[in-house]
Amino acid sequence: MTAEALLALAILAALVVYALAGGADYGGGMWDLLATGPRARRQREAIEHAIGPIWEANHVWLILVLVVLFSAFPPAFAAIMTALNVPMTLVVLGIVARGSAFVFRKYDVQADAVHRRWSGVFGVASFLTPFFLGLVLGGLASGDIRVEGGRVTSGFLAGWTSPFAVGVGLYAQGLFAFLAATYLTVDTEGEADLQEDFRRRALAAGVCLAPLALLVFVLSRHGAPEIFQTLAGAQGLLLFLGTSVCALGALAALWRRRYRWARAAAVAQVTLILLGWGIGQHPYVIVPDVTFESAKTAEPTLRLLVWTLGGGTVVLLPSFAYLFRVFKSRDRRA
């Protein structure tokens, strides 16, 4: 396997981990905003406990994507930051807003009106940021962003304002909401009433994903033909079957209150969805003009990046495993 292929695979792997960890944090913020009923405060406390120790660390994976893209494929990075400047800026603003609001509300007086405003900012930013991330991915696959001679020739609205990109944004919101609610059924073990609240939310979000997935598939026919051709082919059929099995398995496990099985199936579902997007997008960074091959930097730099990533992974993965073991093993009720 070539160095650029290994780095492209590393970008996809980092996006998968970011979706599984950071995406669930966004979903937690959505459910924080939508918390209702007599247990609303306890729901928010459970969400805060689940997110609190690790939300900053999860953004390491998004930073890794940007650093590898900038270092290994600089023309692609420049084109993305030019053509998708608006949604990328909104993503950054959303991340900063939700992170700041989460911290400020933690140390504000609980009964204070400002505390409620910080909660509102945290929830709204958690809703909008995944949508903007979906717009970016939809724009990259749309084929509407044109690059000639290293310069973006399409307008600032090309790609990310298409119906397909909007559909991807809505799907990302639903997927992260489902993932978060499923995780929270495990995190609230021992509190049957809260588990039931998040179980109902996970079931509702999981059911809503089906029409959203169908919408994205239909829109991809004209909105992202490269993705559509993959999804309509033999590879796409296998991925569709695998994703469907995982999705139905997650819903069945939630229905039967097998929460750990539901979490495993949800993780597999999200992984297969992003794997399908990566296969459909390959070999392009930006469809149809920028490929990983055409955008790669010098070979010595690529090889150095591969070795650096390999060495960094040896340190990063055990560190994250230890972080999760320390903070996720704590009993929230203690």
Explain this structure to me?
It is a single chain. This protein has 334 residues and is mostly helical. The protein contains 14 helices and four strands. Strand 3 (284-286) and strand 4 form a beta hairpin. It has one domain. Strands 1-2 form a two-stranded antiparallel ribbon. The relative contact order is 0.14. The mean pLDDT is 91.
Would you summarize the structure shown here?
The chain is 80% helix and 3% strand.
Give a topology summary:
Elements lengths: L2 H31 L6 H12 L3 H4 L1 H13 L1 H10 L1 H23 L5 H30 L4 E2 L2 E2 L10 H25 L4 H32 L1 H8 L1 H22 L3 H23 L2 E3 L3 E2 H4 L3 H30 L6
Antiparallel strand pairs: 1-2, 3-4
What keywords describe this structure?
single chain; 334 residues; 14 helices; two-stranded antiparallel sheet; 80% helix; two-stranded antiparallel ribbon; mainly alpha
Estimate what percentage of residues fall within beta strands. under 5%
Structural class: mainly alpha
* Widest sheet: strand ordering: 1-2
Low-confidence stretches: none
Describe the global form: globular
Tell me the series of helices and strands, N- to C-terminal.
HHHHHHHEEHHHHHEEHH
How would a crystallographer describe the biggest sheet? 2 strands, antiparallel
Mean pLDDT: 91
Evaluate the radius of gyration.
Answer: 20 Å
Number of helices: 14
What is the share of helical residues? over 70%
Number of strands: 4
Count of all domains = 1
Terminus-to-terminus distance: 50 Å
